[in-house]
Amino acid sequence: MRSSTSAPPAPASVSRLVGATVLAVVVLAVACALSIAYGSRPIPLGTVLDTVLHPGRNDEVGLIVLGNRVPRTVVGLLAGAALGVAGAVMQGVTRNPLADPSVLGINSGAALAVVAGIALFGVSGTAAYLPFAFVGAALAALLVYGIAAVARRGLSPVGLALSGAVVAAALSSITTAVLVTNASLLDQLRFWQVGALAGKDLGTAGIITAPVLIGLVIAFGLGRSLNTLALGDELAASLGQRVVLVRAVGGLVTVLLAGSAVAAAGPVAFVGLAVPHAVRRLSGPDHRWTILLSAIVAPALLLVADVIGRVVAYPGELQVGIVTALIGAPVFIALVRSRAVRGL
């Protein structure tokens, strides 16, 4: 077991980083192909390619590929990239290896706000969900930080994780209570509340594209600042880093990305926790490469999980949020038990 006083990992070579990026892109391309080709009805890749290149066909295959699988794949790409990068930024800003939008209750806050918007104001559609998701995510983040700040464990990694778990459980319970007392609302959102890509269209992807891209661009720009922040607040400040500003921008990016993902696909869990840890083994301590690789690997994981959910529950479907939770929960437990959880 690694000592908490061990030296930080050495930066990876540029050739290794470029190779890891190329490999990640290939994996993502394969995940996209699987997402479009496989489901309750497998379709040969050649037929898929012909359908995508000639979108005018109106037969059953055309409806399945263009009307169902391509839109859910595009939404999966955007939501996955948003969740992966949100997790990477959160871990860098808080120097907390347990930070993740689902673990710290941000996804739960966004989900509750969306449900409240539907129940109280009758909003409908992803465009209407977005502002509620942003507000809910921001309030949840502030609540978790406030609880952790006054708790005995303080703002330590485990302290933040415990505060996030409490807030997430409380908010999820309230969301469930609202849903079970409203039959029509429960029927409308029973799949969305666990995280789902089924039933999405290109309109949903179009609505979240702008906030996700804005969040990704800002996150990439934060990479160098997060590297400096990893040296510690005092040293970062002595090097001219505006620590409070970096943390504020990082929080804004997290809310923007997590809120967009929740509005489109529901509160998908653990993608932002597992992926940054996996890619950091390749990228080393450089947050610029960690963020880049997270933006590529996270959507690949989400799409593969979506395909698994379609295949294992045939002829039905296991929602993607359930599959990612099954994948991510053991990772979370391993991290909590590790001495490396002391900080990044």
UniProtKB/TrEMBL annotation:
Report membrane topology: Multi-pass membrane protein
Q: Which UniProt keywords apply?
A: Cell membrane, Membrane, Transmembrane, Transmembrane helix, Transport
Mostly located where? membrane
Task: Please indicate which superkingdom the organism of origin belongs to.
Answer: Bacteria
Q: Does the keyword Transmembrane helix apply?
A: yes
State which residue ranges cross the membrane. 73-90, 102-123, 129-151, 158-182, 202-223, 244-269, 289-308, 320-338
Family membership noted in the UniProt record: Belongs to the binding-protein-dependent transport system permease family. FecCD subfamily.
What name does this protein carry? Iron chelate uptake ABC transporter family permease subunit
The protein's organism comes out as: Curtobacterium citreum
